Each structure stands twice: as C-alpha cells, then as structure tokens.
Amino acid sequence: MKMLSMIVGLSLLSATSAFAQTSYPMTCVFDGSQNVSITQSLTAPRKLVVAFSFKRATKPATQGVDPGTCAWQDRGLYADEPAMIAHVVDDAYTYHEVVFAGKSQLVHTPINALWAPQAKTRGYKLNVKVYNSAPDHGIAVNFFRVAN
Predict the structure, then answer these.
(1) Confidence (pTM)
(2) Which of 4-18, 34-48, 64-78, 81-95 has the lowest average pLDDT?
(3) What pairing do the DSSP bridges indicate for beta strands 69-72 and 55-56?
(4) pLDDT per residue as tens digits for the range 106-143
(5) Is 78 within a domain?
(6) What pLDDT is stored for residue 19 in this prediction?
(7) Angle of CA points 56, 101, 121, to nearest 5°
(8) How many percent of the chain have pLDDT more than 90?
(9) Does the residue 80 lie in any domain?
(10) Per-residue confidence (pLDDT) for residue 3, from 0 to 100
(11) 46-56 exposure pattern, b = at least 16 Cβ within 10 A, e = fewer
(12) CA 116 from chain center: how many Å?
C-alpha cells in the first residue's frame, strides 16, 4: 500500500511538472493607439482574456523599447515569434483610477489586469513574464501568455 501511494504521488508530480511552463521577462511600451481587447474565454469558464498585439522589437529591452513594441530583455523578437500577448484572468472587475489627458477617471477593469486601461497612455511600460502558447481560449494563432 505504501508503495502504491508513492507511485501515485510520483505520477501526480510528474504530470504537474509536464504542464509547468518556463516564463521569460518581456517589456512592452504602448504607443497610445494600441487596442486591448477583453473577451470571455471560449475554453475556460469564468475567465477573461485580456489581449493586445504589438510590433516586434529589433533590439533588446536593455537598449530601450520603442512605443508600440515588445522586446525580450536580451534580444529583439524573431519574425516567427508571436506578436500578441494574452493575459487570462478571473472574470471579476473593479473600478481603477487612471489619468487620461491630465484628467483622473474611474475605469471598469479586470481585477488581475489593472494595466489594461494604461494601454491608451503613450509610453506606458509593461513588464511581464510570458511563455509561448498554442492557440487557445478562442485565440486562433500562437501567442505569448502572461504567467500568473
């Protein structure tokens, strides 16, 4: 019985490890005109997908990130890497204070993605850890998913 428990425990551990993703830091700077979409996940109940597209940076984030682009810390992005980031969060909202054009406004925002309204602010910098994801949650292309 003890041996069976140990085998089951090791099986669960290896199954959990198989689903673990290594994430890497990415820096994005918004250009003020990028759209952030907030939609219901098509594959996970009570989840939202907060996503945006960007241009691939040609240089590493350590050399500065141009508005509208995202970069790895140590290099730009390759042409075959995704140009979209998605953050899958709980379907829960809060009001978050944001300053637009010098005026403070309350914005209805997903609780775990308080960065989303800032996308309309030119120069807003977002530092996230992401991993490569195959199509999922109703997104039909590969994308970078924010590690939670």
Answers:
(1) 0.80
(2) 4-18
(3) parallel
(4) 888 898 898 999 888 899 999 999 999 988 888 878 89
(5) yes
(6) 53
(7) 15
(8) 57
(9) yes
(10) 38
(11) eebbbbbbbee
(12) 10
> Using the 8-state DSSP alphabet, how is residue 45 labeled?
T
Q: What is the reported pLDDT for 140?
A: 78
Residue 83: is its pLDDT beyond 50? yes
Within a domain: 99: yes
Q: Which domain holds residue 31?
A: 22-146
Considering its fold, how many domains does the chain have in total? 1
Distance CA 80, CA 2 (A): 49
Say if CB 52 and CB 35 are below 8 A apart.
yes
Of 55, 92, 93, whose CA–CA distance to 77 is shortest? 55
Distances (CA, A) of 119 to 54, 81, 82: 11, 22, 19
Q: What count of residues does the chain have?
A: 148
The first and second tokens of residue 96, run together, are 């978050």
Q: What is the pLDDT of residue 99?
A: 80
Tokens of 41: 């996940």
Q: Find out whether 33 and 21 touch, Cβ atoms under 8 Å.
A: no
Strand 24-29 to 47-53 pairing? unpaired
| Sign of the dihedral through C-alpha 105, 110, 112, 116 | negative
Q: Would 138 be classed as within a structural domain?
A: yes
Sign (positive or negative) of CA dihedral 92, 93, 94, 100? positive
